Amino acid sequence: MGKLAHKTSVGGQALYEGVMMRGPVGYAIALRLPNGQIETTVHPNQSLKDRISLFRLPVLRGMAGFVESLSMGFKTLTYSFEKAGLEEETPTKFERWLTDKFGKSIVDLVVWVGGLLGVLLAICLFMLLPAAAVKLLGGHVPTWSRPMLEGLIKIVIFIFYLWAVSGLADIRRTFEYHGAEHKSIHAYEAGLPLTVENVRAMSRFHPRCGTNFMFIIMIISILIFSLPIVTWDNLLLRMATKLLLLPVVVGISYEFIRLAGRYDNGFTRFFSAPGLLMQRLTTKEPDDAQIEVAIASLEPVLTGNPEDDRW
Known about the structure:
By secondary structure, the chain is an alpha+beta fold.
């Protein structure tokens, strides 16, 4: 296998006017504030696999990592909105009433409920809608081909969604920060000093991106949901079975993304190719100011010893 010289476990996420990077001992958030300054905050963090040895096992480590990524991603994205002043608008009467009656904690709860509703919407869009569409076709579709058809519908919805949101100005800027995140990690993996000039020259596409991960999840789900334990007689029962199997799908997909990040050969390039193509939608070329933010978020999470973050 063609193992690469240094592939880092450091990963990140584009935020609103910023980037979050997560390293072996903590994570850093760098934001471009409304006054033009870069604010960088560093936070200690211990992952589940470091605290509980069970979550170091293959597949289980992917499940734990996915949950942690969702939680941290939501928290840091909310923080970036707050720092940008997007949540400093005059509160509505309902918001003031909630705060007066229950305190700030209830408002935070409402925010988390909003996030949960977003997850439920994603389940409906990427699981229920494709399943319902295939069910409507009924006897016109052979049973053996239904998982593949569902998967294809899911992929089409996903691509259309990415294409639609990429046209929004704020989303496009976030995608530019996404590109800056990838470029800075490429520069670090290449052993180059983290300067704007070096980072700018790097590719904005990365095989260990969340976009790749989502695409691999959809491919693995086609295989797993083809198993006989997934019934086709009852739509709700099939949905429930898929939700129960979803952690397994995520765990297996994580192992594939690990291979893609660690090795460079025909097998990993084949599985990475569709996700890399979709990164043409989810990443855009950043400007130098955005690259500065990505560098500011990456530098604090590096220990100085590449072995600490080897993938």
